[in-house]
Amino acid sequence: MKKTVFNTRILSAEAVKEAADWLKAGELVAFPTETVYGLGANALDAAAVAKIFAAKGRPADNPLIVHVANPAAAEPLARLGPLACQLMDTFWPGPLTLVLPRQKLVPDIVSAGLPTLALRMPRHPLALALLNECGLPLAAPSANLSGRPSPTLPGHVFEDLAGQIALILDGGPVEIGLESTVLDLSGKQPVLLRPGAVTRSQLQPFCGEILLPDDRHQERPAAPGMKYSHYAPKAQVLLVKGADDLRQEWQKNQKEGCSPLFILSQESLEKLPELPGEQVLLAWPAHNMEFFANKLFSCFRQADKLGAKAIIVETVPETGLGRAIMNRLRKAGGIV
Ligand code: AMP
Ligand code: MG
Questions:
Q1: Is 186 touching ligand 1 by the criterion CB < 6 Å?
Q2: Helix H segments across 14-161?
Q3: Measured over all CA atoms, what is the biggest interatomic distance in the chain, rounded to whole angstroms?
Q4: Of the residues 37, 49, 61, 64, which should be mutated to test ligand 1's pocket, given the most ligand atoms within 8 Å of the CB?
Q5: Which atom of ligand 1 is nearest to the CA of 97?
Q6: Residue/partner pairs of 193-198 with CB below 8 Å, 24 or more apart
Q7: Are 181 and 195 in contact (CB under 8 A)?
């Protein structure tokens, strides 16, 4: 089959109709969501979905999330039990993906052959406008090349996928910057497959006990997609707690002739006045986890561009959004 090379452009909100036309024609369009930019294809068209795997270089056994315009649009796609309906009522539109038993209407390729389907209704106005305009469920993983950080700006998508996809809808910087929470409701007990901006403690009142993937291993194997770390930068990611340990790690790196980059809190930066400004990728304001989450993936891309050998990152407490941040940091460091 001849490969089409697209003149990929970044277009503003008025382009929703053009984007919907491409999707209806079986092509790929990148669009903003509140979490990260997504790479969309008609979820009911196996050939269109295959283009997502090809463009991203995504392994065929890593399932996709399907995005819908409203809860009613989820009904023909998966079996929604009472808990799913309650969670949809409460958290949709928003950054919560639910894994549910898949209906036959959805081609196997979307779920990498699994009997389940991951579903989400995003809250970004452009994503909703696009879903409504095309009238289709959209399979949409993050719009990056496999193994690169998820895109949080339209320029990130362009870097990775220009020429491969029809167009990029420009919604500016995303709101959250980390991928959605993924909650598996297909088994006996809910399992939190991926932490995100909808936190475990927000879900708990509805779900009772929520298992983590490790707990579930005994029950049945984890979803195939779980074995892929989202992103391992070229630089070594060193996770360190607090200003004293940051200084120690820095000195160790310097002795080895390395000038690492830093991602740390402003509080710790103030305790390290000797740190050269050009080595600081990000200093997040005290306790502002939203700010940290929002900038993290951009920082990783920047570190790669700068050819960094090491990034020293200050850890955060694993509560609320901190759990999602630490999850992505560990993956970046190859720790999980
Ligand atoms: P991405 O869209 O790139 O953020 O990745 C989607 C992730 O959602 C996958 O890597 C899986 O971990 C998860 N996922 C999607 N579909 C399923 C499914 N049917 N069962 C379990 N996990 C899923
Ligand atoms: Mg992804």
A1: no
A2: 16-24, 46-56, 82-91, 125-134, 154-161
A3: 61
A4: 64
A5: 8
A6: 193/99, 193/222, 193/223, 193/226, 194/97, 194/324, 194/327, 195/323, 195/324, 195/327, 196/35, 196/95, 196/96, 196/324, 197/35, 197/94, 197/95, 197/293, 197/321, 197/324, 198/91, 198/94, 198/95, 198/96
A7: yes
CA angle 123, 208, 120 (to 5 degrees): 20
d(CA 285, CA 267): 7
Using a cut of 0.90, tell me whether the model's pTM lies above it: yes
Q: Give the Å distance between the CA of 116 and the centre of ligand 2.
A: 18
- In tens digits, the chain (336 residues) has pLDDT values of 568 899 999 888 889 999 999 999 999 999 999 999 999 999 999 999 999 999 999 999 999 999 999 999 999 999 999 999 999 999 999 999 999 999 999 999 999 999 999 999 999 999 999 999 999 999 999 999 999 999 999 999 999 999 999 999 999 999 999 999 999 999 999 999 999 999 999 999 999 999 998 765 444 445 555 666 567 788 899 999 999 999 999 999 989 988 999 999 999 999 999 999 999 999 999 889 999 999 999 999 999 999 999 999 999 999 999 999 999 999 998 876
Q: Please state, in angstroms and rounded to a whole number, the distance separating the CA atoms of residues 236 and 116.
A: 35
Number of the ligand 1 atom closest to the C-alpha atom of 114 = 19
Please tell me the distance between residue 225's alpha carbon and the centre of ligand 1 in angstroms. Answer: 6
Nearest to 33 by CA among 150, 163, 200: 150
